[in-house]
Amino acid sequence: MKPWIKTGIFWTLWMFTVMTFVFPYLVKLLLGDEDAFDHFGVRVLINAVVFSITGLYIGYRSQKKKARKQVDG
Hints:
Layout (H helix, E strand, L loop, with lengths): L2 H29 L8 H33 L1
Helix pairs in contact: 1-2
């Protein structure tokens, strides 16, 4: 597996976990917001798709940035 894909998958898993499970729990705990878990299944599916695309994009861009530094440096 290419390093940029590993970076993207790591970023995806990290942000998906934090933004889908941890952050709504903290909002509910600290602010008492009962709507934090409304439509949870839909939110999980949407976040999975969005963070997968974004994570792979960030991994790809980090690989391109490293390649550019090696050429310049």
